[in-house]
């Protein structure tokens, strides 16, 4: 969690019973803190400063005609529920209307049916933040 987060607030927590087996994923890059908190009264029993670094993510996708599948190549953290989507460049939010990307091998995704500027986006599955994006031009069919 952010080191500026006040005590008593839960952000990205895991029960200690499960964390050794499952691990835990950090939040936003920057200065952070690991806190050991009592489950009884939420009192912080111990804390440790950490530095959270940004994930390394790469996306590649060639221009394609409207409606044709796009071969997306990607590398990334591949965290649970992360996904890749293709949206019009003007789209503000991520849309979960495509198949989950990072949980699958790199492969085909369907672009929008209309020509125009789009983006391929790698989305954080925990909070739907866009972690990486690249432009993708959808050209008219037959171009």
Question: Key features?
Answer:
143 residues, Immunoglobulin-like, 2 domains, 3-stranded antiparallel β-sheet, 5% helix
* Largest beta-sheet details: 4 strands, mixed
CATH class of the largest domain: Mainly Beta
Question: Could you estimate the helical fraction of the residues in percent?
Answer: under 10%
Domain count, please report it: 2
- Within the largest sheet, what's the order of strands? 4-9-8-6
Number of strands: 9
How much strand? 35-45%
- The count of helical stretches stands at 1
- In whole angstroms, the N-to-C terminal distance is 49 Å
Would you identify the CATH architecture of the largest domain? Sandwich
SS-based class? mainly beta
Rg, alpha carbons? 19 Å
Enumerate the spans where pLDDT stays under 50 for 5 or more consecutive residues: 97-108
CATH T-level fold name of the largest domain: Immunoglobulin-like
The overall average pLDDT, rounded, is 75
Order of helices and strands: HEEEEEEEEE
What gross morphology would you assign?
elongated
Report on the structure:
The protein contains 1 helix and 9 strands. It is mainly β and 143 residues long. The strands form 3 sheets. Strands 4-9-8-6 form a 4-stranded mixed β-sheet, with no helix packed on it. The protein has a 3-stranded antiparallel β-sheet with strand order 3-5-7, with no helix packed on it. Strands 1-2 form a two-stranded antiparallel ribbon. The N and C termini lie far apart (49 Å).
């Amino acid at each position: 969690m952010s080191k500026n987060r006040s005590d008593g607030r839960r952000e990205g927590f895991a029960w200690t019973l499960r964390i050794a087996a499952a691990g835990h994923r950090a939040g936003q890059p920057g200065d952070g803190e690991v806190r050991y908190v009592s489950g009884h009264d939420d009192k912080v029993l111990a804390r440790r400063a950490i530095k959270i670094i940004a994930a390394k993510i790469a996306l590649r996708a060639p221009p394609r005609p409207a409606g044709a599948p796009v071969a997306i190549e990607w590398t990334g953290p591949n965290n649970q529920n992360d996904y890749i989507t293709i949206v019009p460049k003007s789209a503000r939010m991520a849309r979960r209307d495509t198949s989950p990307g990072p949980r699958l091998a790199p492969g085909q995704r369907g672009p929008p049916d209309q020509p125009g500027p789009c983006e391929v986006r790698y989305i954080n599955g925990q909070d739907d933040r866009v972690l990486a994006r690249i432009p993708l031009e959808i050209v008219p069919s037959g171009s």
